């Protein structure tokens, strides 16, 4: 009897190993044939917004292991073919913002065998074919576009190809974590959506309110994306996307690029950060109302109290399986043709177990494969869905440029945050 049990367990183990190898081979094949396009990252933070910043490219080389989530070896290991990279400056002044553009151009020049600035779907495909990683310039706010639409056109010619309409706080759209003032998109925001359609800039609806999402989906004549968001039905936060909006996204032909940010992935993690931890912060704010006036002893005591609280209240564990639940949910609701991946690497501290950096993309693909996702479905997720949207945006722009003139609306003062 014991021998039968032993051989039964051995057979199960061998079958499991064979299955693991089969999954690994399939994921490798997917990433070889359809390298992943990551919907969002904040790589420039290591040159602009770090403790030692501003710093030069040699101070944070990408051809070796870095302290962040992204470097060239890990991008290669993760099967990454292109990145929508957020271009930003140290402040809101245009000259500061242009320094970010200078950095991204110089990064591409510094690593010409590995990186290429890509401003069309054709260039993205060509870069991947030649073994380089495409950088698709994006913007995670509209601070620098508030004067007039001429700025949008100028940045398009510089290479801008995707824009988020607001970054949590209000701008031309109501931000997800701000008190609404526009009831969705502002009048100028609606004009900007139409001009983005005409230019061929991808509209990104991450970070804005549900009403703003619905306004944009009603107005746009080209597909849109959510570059880094999850399903609100699984994790109820304004930053995620409701079923109502997802169904509209399907009608639009757009894509939600699901993100491994810890607190957008499970309700437990979200509540930990935005309910439980917030309540503790309020207690600390009352106890230490003016940090600038704190003595060394008070600072030390506050640090000890905070560490004691964190030790007694550990961060919830969020796994690749939790992340995969969002893929299954969205697939069942609107279909696999509307799903991608947007990491938010280098823009978030709290990522999930198994998705800690750019080398980890095969982990989520393996989990999906083990759940029955096919090779053709995984290729849609890694790049085909996004490229379809990019090409549709370009095609619509060609049509509009033949039939419409550049829009010249000026921003009203109440639209400026």
TrEMBL record:
Q: Where is this region: Disordered?
A: 398-417
Its domain of life reads Bacteria
Q: Which SUPFAM superfamilies match?
A: Metallo-dependent hydrolases
Question: What is the residue range of the signal peptide feature?
Answer: none
InterPro entries tied to this protein: Metal_Hydrolase, Pept_M19
Q: Which PANTHER family match?
A: DIPEPTIDASE, MICROSOMAL DIPEPTIDASE
- Write down what this protein is called: Putative dipeptidase
**UniProt organism field:** Lunatimonas lonarensis
């Amino acid at each position: 009897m014991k021998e039968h049990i032993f051989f039964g367990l051995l057979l199960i183990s061998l079958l499991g190993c064979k299955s693991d190898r089969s999954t690994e081979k399939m994921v490798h094949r997917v990433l070889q044939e359809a390298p992943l396009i990551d919907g969002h990252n904040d790589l420039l933070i290591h040159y602009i917004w770090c403790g030692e910043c501003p710093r030069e490219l040699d101070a944070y080389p990408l051809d070796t292991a870095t302290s962040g989530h992204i470097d060239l070896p890990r991008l290669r290991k993760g099967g990454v073919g292109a990145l929508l990279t957020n271009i930003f400056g140290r402040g809101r002044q245009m000259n500061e913002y242009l320094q970010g553009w200078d950095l991204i151009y110089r990064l591409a020049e510094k690593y010409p065998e590995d990186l290429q600035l890509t401003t069309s779907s054709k260039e993205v495909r060509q870069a991947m074919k030649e073994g380089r990683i495409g950088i698709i310039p994006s913007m995670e706010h509209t601070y620098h576009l508030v004067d007039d639409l001429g700025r949008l056109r100028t940045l398009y010619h510089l290479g801008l190809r995707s824009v988020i309409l607001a970054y949590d706080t209000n701008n031309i759209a109501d931000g997800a974590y701000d008190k609404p003032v526009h009831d969705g998109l502002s009048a100028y925001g609606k004009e900007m959506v139409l001009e983005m359609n005409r230019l061929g800039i991808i509209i990104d609806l991450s970070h804005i309110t549900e009403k703003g999402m619905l306004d944009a989906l009603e107005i746009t004549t080209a597909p849109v994306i959510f570059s880094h968001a999850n399903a609100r039905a699984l994790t109820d936060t304004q930053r995620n996307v409701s079923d109502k909006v997802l169904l509209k996204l399907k009608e639009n032909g757009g894509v939600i690029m699901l993100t491994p940010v810890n607190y957008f992935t499970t309700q437990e993690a979200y509540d930990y950060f935005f309910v439980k931890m917030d309540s503790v912060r309020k207690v600390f704010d009352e106890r230490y109302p003016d940090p600038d006036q704190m003595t060394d002893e008070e600072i030390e005591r506050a640090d000890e109290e905070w560490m004691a609280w964190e030790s007694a209240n550990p961060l919830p564990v969020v796994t690749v399986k939790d992340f995969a639940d969002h893929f299954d949910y969205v697939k069942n609701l609107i279909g696999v043709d509307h799903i991608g991946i947007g990491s938010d690497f280098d823009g978030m501290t709290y990522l999930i177990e198994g998705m800690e950096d750019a080398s980890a993309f095969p982990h989520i693909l393996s989990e999906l494969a083990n759940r029955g996702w096919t090779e053709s479905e995984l290729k849609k997720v890694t790049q085909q869905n996004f490229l379809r949207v990019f090409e549709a945006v370009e095609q619509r722009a060609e049509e509009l440029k033949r039939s419409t003139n550049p829009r010249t609306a000026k921003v009203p003062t109440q639209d400026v945050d």
